[in-house]
Design brief:
Blueprint: H1 4-13, E1 27-30, E2 33-34, E3 42-46, E4 49-54, H2 56-60, E5 68-71, E6 76-79, E7 81-86, H3 88-92, E8 99-100, H4 111-120, E9 127-132, H5 134-139, H6 146-153, E10 159-163, E11 168-171, H7 173-178, E12 191-195, E13 202-208, H8 209-219, H9 225-242, E14 245-250, H10 259-268, E15 275-277, H11 288-298, E16 309-310, E17 313-317, H12 350-362, E18 366-371, H13 374-389, E19 396-400, H14 406-409, H15 411-415, E20 417-421, H16 428-431, H17 434-440, H18 442-445, H19 451-455, E21 461-463, H20 474-483, H21 492-498, H22 501-507, E22 524-527, E23 544-549, E24 552-556
Parallel strand pairs: 1-5, 2-6, 7-14, 8-9, 9-10, 14-15, 15-16, 17-18, 18-19, 19-20, 20-21
Antiparallel strand pairs: 1-3, 3-4, 6-22, 10-11, 11-13, 12-13, 22-23, 23-24
Helix pairs in contact: 9-10, 12-13, 20-21
C-alpha cells in the first residue's frame, strides 16, 4: 500500500494513475471535452480534488460500486469561473431596498415612481431604493431640486436611493437629519455634499463617501437585518452558481453593517456554494489604528484546499467615477459637478494609501484597489511600488482601471499588479466612448477600457462582473472582451484565462483552483456549447449545464 505522503506527491506531480490509486474515486466524469487537456475525455475526483485526467474507459476501470459516474454527453468541461469583483451580498439582498427607479428618467419623470413606492410601503422606517441616473436627475431645470422632490412625497420618512453605480445617493431632509448632515457639514474625505447651483443650499445628492455614510445609518436601522442579509446572500450565491461561478472575489465587506457575521454564519451552516474571498472595506474617514485592530482579528491564514471563506485582502478606494467628477485625473475635467475640484478626488490620499498598504502588509493583508482615473491608477501604483520595495510579494490588484496613462501601462507587469476589468454591459458602450468626451475630451476618452494595452505588457489581466452594476454572466464578459474593437483581448484563451487562472492569481489561490489539473480543487463548469467553436458574439448564448465546487454539484440545469 502506498504511503499517504508518496501518493500525494504523485498526485501533485501528475504521475498519479487510477491503476495505482489509494482508493477508488468518489466521482468520475466521462465522455466530455476537457478544456486545455488535449485528447482527455474524463477526469476523476477524490475528496473534492482532481486525481486523474484521461480517457473514459481508463478512468472507468478505476471505479467501484460506490463511485458516482456522470456522463458529460460530449459537452465542454471548463474550470469554474472566478468572478474577481462581485457584490454578491448587496446585489441580491432585499435589505438594499425594493423601490426601483429608472435610469433613463428625469427628475420630473421619476415622480410617479416615487409616488408608487410611497403607496406600496406606508412604514415610517427607512425607505431604500436604487436605479436613478445622476446625469438625468440634474440635467433639466424642473424648478425643484432633488431634495425638494423627495421632501414633497416623503415629508417625515427617511429615504435613501442609490444610483446604479453606488457612487451617489439621493436623500431627503429626514435622512440628512438622522445622518447629522446640515448646511454647515464639511465634505468628508472621498465624498462631496452637493449643493444647488442657484441657491447654494443642499440639493439632496451625496457623492461617494458622503453617501456611503448615510447608507451606513440606513442599513443599521433595518428591522430583522441579519435574516434579510442572510437570505439575500443565499439568493446571490444561487445566482452565481447558475452562471458557473465557483469562486467570488467580494466587491467590499462593509463590516460595520454586520456583514462579516452573515458570511461567517453561511460558512458555519455550510451553505456557501462558492469559494469567497472577503475583502473588508477600509473606511476612508475612520482612524487607522482601530481599523487595523479589527482587520487583524478577522484575518484568515493562507488558504488551504478546504477553505471556502478567505480573508487576506482588503478593499480600498483610491477615487470615485468619471461621470460624477470624482475619479482622480492627471489632467483637469472639461466638465464637472465639482468646479473646485477639477482633478477629481481621493478617497484615500496617496501618502495615506502608502501608509495603509505598509501597515496592512505587516498583518498579512494585500489589497484590491478601486482606481478608475489615470491619476488614481498612478497614485495606487506608486503606493504599491513603495510596499514592494519593503519586500512584499503579495498579490495586488487595481480594479476598473478605466483610464491609464501610457507611461503607467508597463508598470502593472513590472510591479506584479493585476488589472481587473469589467466589460459585462452592452459592448457598444466600450467601443463608443462618446459619453466620456464631455468630461475628459475625445482623445482621452478614446483610451478608456484598453484591455489590450495592459495585456500586451505581459501583466496579469482579469475579467469580473461588478454585479449588479454589470451582467453577472461570465460568458457575457468573455464575449464582449473579444468583440471590443482595438482594445479587447486577442484570443478566446486569453479571455477564459482572465475569468479563471488569472483571477486565481489575483486572489493568490492559483495553487488551489483556476484550471483543470491534477491536484487542484474540482471546481468545474459544464457548458452546453463548445465556445471554442463559436463566433465571439455567440459565446454569451451558451448555457451552464452544471456547476461543481470541490467535487459537489451546486447547480444542475436539469434540476431547474
Amino acid at each position: 500500500m502506498l504511503k499517504k505522503s508518496m501518493r500525494f506527491a504523485m498526485v501533485m506531480s501528475g504521475l498519479f494513475s487510477p491503476l495505482i490509486a489509494f482508493a477508488a474515486p468518489d466521482i468520475v466524469l466521462v465522455n466530455g471535452s476537457i478544456y486545455n487537456n488535449q485528447d482527455a475525455r474524463a477526469l476523476a475526483i477524490q475528496n473534492g480534488v482532481i486525481t486523474a485526467i484521461g480517457g473514459s474507459e481508463e478512468l472507468l476501470a478505476s471505479t467501484d460500486d460506490k463511485t458516482q459516474v456522470i456522463d458529460l454527453n460530449g459537452q465542454l468541461l471548463m474550470p469554474g469561473f472566478i468572478d474577481n469583483h462581485n457584490h454578491v451580498f448587496e446585489a441580491a439582498s432585499e435589505a438594499g431596498g425594493n423601490c426601483e427607479l429608472s435610469a433613463s428618467a428625469t427628475l420630473l419623470e421619476l415622480k410617479p415612481y416615487l409616488e408608487y413606492c410611497q403607496q406600496q410601503s406606508q412604514s415610517k422606517d427607512w425607505l431604500m431604493g436604487y436605479g436613478f441616473s445622476l446625469e438625468m436627475l440634474l440635467a433639466h431645470d424642473s424648478g425643484q431640486t432633488p431634495l425638494d422632490m423627495l421632501d414633497s412625497i416623503f415629508p417625515d420618512r427617511p429615504v435613501i436611493l442609490m444610483e446604479q453605480t453606488s457612487h451617489s445617493m439621493w436623500v431627503n431632509s429626514t435622512a440628512l437629519e438622522l445622518a447629522q448632515i446640515s448646511e454647515d457639514t464639511p465634505n468628508p474625505q472621498g465624498g462631496v455634499i452637493l449643493r444647488d447651483e442657484a441657491s447654494g443650499k443642499l440639493n439632496g445628492i451625496l457623492l461617494d463617501s458622503a453617501g456611503d455614510a448615510v447608507m451606513e445609518v440606513a442599513w443599521n436601522s433595518l428591522n430583522n437585518q441579519f435574516e434579510q442579509s442572510y437570505q439575500g446572500l443565499l439568493v446571490g450565491l444561487e445566482t452565481a452558481a447558475e452562471h458557473g461561478i465557483t469562486t467570488i472575489g467580494d466587491g467590499r465587506l462593509y463590516w460595520k453593517r454586520g456583514w462579516y457575521e452573515v458570511w461567517r454564519h453561511a460558512d458555519d451552516q455550510q451553505t456557501l456554494t462558492a469559494r469567497v474571498a472577503l475583502r473588508p472595506w477600509v473606511y476612508p474617514n475612520e482612524e487607522m489604528t482601530a481599523q487595523l485592530k479589527y482587520l487583524e482579528s478577522i484575518y484568515s491564514s493562507e488558504p488551504t484546499m478546504s477553505d471556502l471563506l478567505i480573508i487576506n485582502q482588503v478593499k480600498m478606494y483610491s477615487d470615485g467615477i468619471i461621470i460624477n467628477g470624482t475619479a482622480k485625473l492627471l489632467a483637469p475635467y472639461l466638465d464637472t459637478y465639482l468646479t473646485n475640484k477639477p482633478y477629481g478626488i481621493n478617497y484615500i490620499s496617496p501618502k495615506k494609501m502608502t501608509n495603509w498598504l505598509k501597515a496592512l502588509n505587516d498583518i498579512g493583508y494585500s489589497a484590491h484597489i478601486h482606481a478608475i482615473g489615470d491619476g488614481a491608477v498612478r497614485e495606487s501604483l506608486d503606493a504599491i511600488e513603495q510596499v514592494r520595495q519593503q519586500g512584499s510579494n503579495k498579490p495586488y490588484t487595481l480594479t476598473h482601471v478605466e483610464l491609464v496613462d501610457k507611461n503607467d501601462e508597463s508598470r502593472f507587469n513590472k510591479l506584479g499588479v493585476s488589472a481587473d476589468f469589467q466589460v459585462g454591459s452592452d459592448y457598444v458602450a466600450y467601443n463608443d466612448h462618446a459619453w466620456a468626451e464631455a468630461f475628459i475630451g475625445a482623445m482621452r476618452a478614446h483610451r478608456l477600457m484598453n484591455l489590450k494595452a495592459i495585456f500586451d505588457t505581459g501583466a496579469n489581466v482579469t475579467l469580473s462582473s461588478d454585479w449588479n452594476v454589470h451582467d453577472i454572466n461570465p460568458l457575457v464578459g468573455i464575449s464582449n472582451s473579444l468583440i471590443m474593437e482595438r482594445s479587447g483581448l486577442p484570443t478566446l484563451e486569453a479571455a477564459i484565462d482572465a475569468y479563471t487562472i488569472n483571477a486565481a492569481k489575483s486572489l493568490g489561490i492559483d495553487h488551489i483552483t483556476g484550471s483543470i489539473a491534477i491536484g487542484k480543487s474540482a471546481d468545474l463548469v459544464l457548458l452546453d456549447k463548445d465556445i471554442r467553436e463559436l463566433a465571439p458574439e455567440d459565446i454569451a448564448k451558451a448555457r451552464v449545464v452544471m456547476t461543481m465546487l470541490q467535487g459537489e454539484i451546486v447547480f444542475s440545469y436539469a434540476e431547474n
